[in-house]
Specification:
The protein is mainly β. It contains no helices and 28 strands. Strands 2-3-5-6-13-8-11 form a seven-stranded antiparallel β-sheet, with no helix packed on it. It has a five-stranded antiparallel β-sheet with strand order 4-7-12-9-10, with no helix packed on it. It has a four-stranded antiparallel β-sheet with strand order 20-21-26-23, with no helix packed on it.
């Protein structure tokens, strides 16, 4: 069979230092075995942060004097205004006052639920305290929404574990404020306090107070693994760590120990193990010596790595020879490099994959047989892909190991 000369674009990724045995993409993608996904916020640790749970002391219609379960309302008049390095014994502040909540009938609508709280009740230098248990050395985020009832009289001091953090000045509309801190593994406390010099009975309005634990970054074993397999035309097992759940597998370009052309093919074996082999085009004798094939397996999803690299691993159904359009689960900020491998071997006819229209939102893919069978429709398969966007100029670092991601045009012919 004669293959006409033409240009073909292939994505390539080179590394300067190998951490493991394999390069794992369609055309030599190098990888780093330490890959992290973006941290997730775990369920929040504060209770009654939207002030929906309360006991009414006095009902004034559109606002109420209440007691708030899980919160300790304190008068902090004896505490100087917060300055850098200032600290107080937060546990020594006893509950001394009630709180004032506003209903939806007054002020801006609440950002969470139907109620919000004013941080200046009855002339006291109001403060709200809540304690919660953290996990040692894990990162946490305190956040809340606030707006000013009266400009110049609505500053909020933020204290964590009795340490002054910052004073914020809300605008006339809702704003969100957040502060990160490290867990001690013990009970910790936050204090939101009005500024003593602004004790005018016109304080800030606060809602949706939360403390979230930021989930620790997943370990390498839970995200990606890679390796090499040596095989010819016989199916050989590809051992993927059990910690990589339901992986997308990308096969690299086989070596050329023998000149007969073909493709690397993947399938699930009888015991659900992954298998691969070198599959010659059907007009050949299919008797092929061993080649070395790199592979990489990644947990499906949209991952942000520790250096800012963004990777998405996913699947789509594909069949016949029509172009199939696929959208990424999340858009990239620029065009990524895309690497693909069939995850199934439902139709044993040797086939390769072509891509076009790759952009930040997705790509199109089709299946292509050898020239003599170009009119034959291929059966239904599952296509796996990994799309990669490096943080700057096609390069980045994965666990301190540099890599470079390139696109190169080549000419090939028989």
């Amino acid at each position: 069979m004669n293959i006409p000369k033409h240009n073909k674009t292939i994505n390539r990724c080179f590394r300067k230092k190998a951490l493991a045995a394999a390069c794992a993409t369609l055309a030599g993608l190098s990888y780093n075995t330490t890959v992290f996904s973006a941290p997730d916020l775990q369920p929040q640790l504060l209770l009654n942060g939207s002030f929906e749970n309360y006991t009414t002391v006095s009902n004034r219609g559109s606002w109420k004097i209440v007691q708030l379960p899980h919160w300790k309302a304190v008068n902090t008049a004896g505490i100087p205004e917060g300055t850098s390095g200032a600290s107080i014994d937060i546990n020594a502040l006893n509950k001394t006052t009630n709180s004032e909540i506003w209903t939806s009938r007054i002020g801006n609508p609440a950002t969470e639920g139907k109620h919000k709280i004013e941080l200046d009740y009855s002339g006291a230098v109001d403060g709200l305290i809540q304690s919660f248990k953290t996990r040692k050395d894990n990162n946490h985020t305190l956040s809340f929404d606030a707006y000013a009832r009266t400009p110049g009289s609505s500053d909020i001091e933020v204290w964590i574990d009795g340490i002054y953090v910052k004073t914020v000045t809300p605008a006339n509309d809702w704003q969100s404020f957040s502060f990160d801190f490290t867990g001690t593994g013990t009970k910790q406390s936050i204090l939101l306090r009005e500024r003593a010099s602004q004790n005018s009975a016109y304080g800030a309005i606060i809602d949706n107070v939360t403390v979230n634990e930021i989930a620790p970054l997943p370990t390498t074993a839970n995200i990606v693994t890679a390796g090499q397999v040596q095989t010819g035309n016989e199916w050989a097992q590809l051992a993927v760590s059990q910690s990589i759940k339901d992986p997308v597998i990308i096969l690299g370009t086989p070596t050329a120990n023998e000149t007969s052309p073909g493709v690397a093919r993947l399938r699930r074996g009888t015991n659900s193990e992954y298998e691969l082999r070198f599959e010659e085009w059907s007009y050949l004798d299919e008797n092929h010596p061993q080649e070395t094939i790199d592979w990489m397996a990644m947990v499906p999803g949209h991952h942000v790595l520790d250096d800012g690299t963004v990777i998405e691993a996913g699947r789509l159904d594909i069949e016949g020879k029509r172009w199939k359009k696929h959208k990424f689960s999340e858009n990239f900020s620029s065009r990524p490099a895309v690497f693909v491998t069939l995850q199934t071997d439902n139709d044993s006819q040797p086939v390769t994959i072509r891509l076009r229209n790759i952009n930040s939102k997705g790509f199109k893919a089709t299946l292509q047989h050898e020239e003599s069978l170009r009119k034959k429709l291929h059966g239904a398969e599952v296509l796996g892909y990994i799309a990669i966007q490096s943080p700057k100029a096609g390069s980045g670092q994965l666990n301190k190991t540099p890599y470079q991601l390139l696109t190169k045009k080549i000419r090939y012919f028989n």
